[in-house]
Structure formats: C-alpha cells, structure tokens
Amino acid sequence: MFVFKFGGASVKNADAVKNIFTILQGYSENIVVVVSAMGKTTNALEKIIENFFIRKEKVLKEEFNQLKEYHYTILNGLFDDKDHEVFADIENVFEELAARLDTDPTLNYDFDYDQIIGFGEILSTKIISHYLQMSGLTSRWMDVRKVLKTDNNFREGRIDWDLSSKLVKEQFEFKKEQILVTQGFLASTINNLTVSLGREGSDYTAAILAHILKSKSVTIWKDVPGVLNADPKYFDDTVLIEKLSYLDAIELAYYGTSVIHPKTIKPLQNKNINLYVRS
Ligand code: ASP
Ligand code: MG
After folding, report:
1. Ligand 1, CB within 6 Å, residue ranges
2. CA of 176 relative to ligand 2 center, distance in Å
3. What residues contact residue 176 under an 8 Å CB cut-off, 6+ apart?
C-alpha cells in the first residue's frame, strides 16, 4: 500500500478535487489518502478562533458564512445531484461548528483553538471521500482522531506511538475499499479531545501513518514540480533536485524550505520508506 498526501492547494477548488480523482484512478493499489483543509481554510479558521475568543459576534458570523459559502461553491461544482447525502453531511458539520462558536470560550486558548481548527480537515475529507465514491472509486472516510493519540499539549500534540500504532493497525484496514481517506494535522487525547500537530502538520500525519502501516512509500502531491534548489516564488531559474538523502532532506526542512515539514522525515527514515514529492 501507499500513502498519498494532498495539501490545501491541491484541494482548493472543484477542479483540484477532480484532479485528485484523476490521479487516484491511475492506481490499483490500496492507498491511504491524507488531506489538508481546503485552500486557505486553516487561516480562515484561525481568524474565526481569534474572534470567538474575544466575542466579536458580528465579524464571527460573517467569517463563518464566508467559510460556508466557500465550501458550498466547491460542493456545487462537484455534485450535480443536490439530493446527494454529502449535502446533509456537510450541513451537519457546519451546524456542529456553529454550535461550538455559540458556547463560551474557556480560559485555555490552545484548547479552544484545537476544538475549532479541526473542522477544516473534517470538511475537506468528507467532501473528497464522497466525491471519490461517487466517481467510482471505493473509498471509506476515516476519523484520524480515533487512531492517532497524543498528550494534552494542544496545538503541538506529541504522538503516543505505542497506543497509536495499536489503534491504526486495528482500524486502518482495507476491506472492500481501495482507498481510505483521512485528515492530516489532527489527532486526539485519550479523552477524545481534538489536538492538532502544529501548522502544516499534514505531511507529518502521512509519515506517521506510513511508518505504522509499513507503507512502501509516501507521496506528497504539490502544485510545484518537486523539490527545487530554491523557492520559485523568488527565483525563476530553479533546478529540480531528483534525489535527496534523508539527512539532506532533514537539513533542508530544518533550515526552512517549505517543501517538507521538518518532523516528516524521521518516521520514514526509521523504516526506510521512500518519500516522493510530485506535481
Ligand atoms: N491545514 C493545516 C495547515 O494549514 C495543516 C496542513 O495543511 O498541513 O496548517
Ligand atoms: Mg497546507
């Protein structure tokens, strides 16, 4: 089996989601698909969290509506049948988010942050899982919070490897389906409170799952051609680096290249799992 990770830019609109289907269609292997929140959703949720915390009701309402509209634009671009169950499913998630925003904040910002930030990944994975299923791939939606367990260090959860390994192996089983779709960036405490793994943490999720499931490889799908020798936002004569050792990749990530999240390499290196960065 393989692990594929699709970041926010790879799921930012209906066409991007359709492209994921096109990519997956080319494979007959079992694949765990790890997905981030759509486009800039995590940034939008961070604003919502700030305004939730200081009780700016009016702005909060506007930001909530914008987030909802953004997701419904994507839904409408993907599903012609307006009776498709995805619509009720997504409506429920937004109702749950609205109910959460209606409660009073606690005195623990990081705790509240994690209880709200995770909605982005829940939305994206539900939409994508339904879309793949409708398009003819067999897929199952998995709640990663049921299997990845951390301590109570909200916003930067530390993985309990023993417990998580046991739970992932028990539950991430391919039965009739070829594809399991799950959230990057999220985990939970043993009391089932959502914990996030740090911004841009979805690559790390892909690596953790690959490590535990002994995946052949991890592929991070991006909107750049692969790992370049410089950031193409600032240089136009960049060169594609075909191959990197784990050590070089760790150094690059450590010194701030935005291609790979720094924590991603170690779980792969320990099991000799190849990491591909593809467009
Ligand atoms: N959605 C989260 C973020 O934007 C996690 C990720 O994209 O890796 O930080
Ligand atoms: Mg991202």
Report:
1. 7-8, 36-37, 42, 120, 184-185, 199-202
2. 30
3. 138
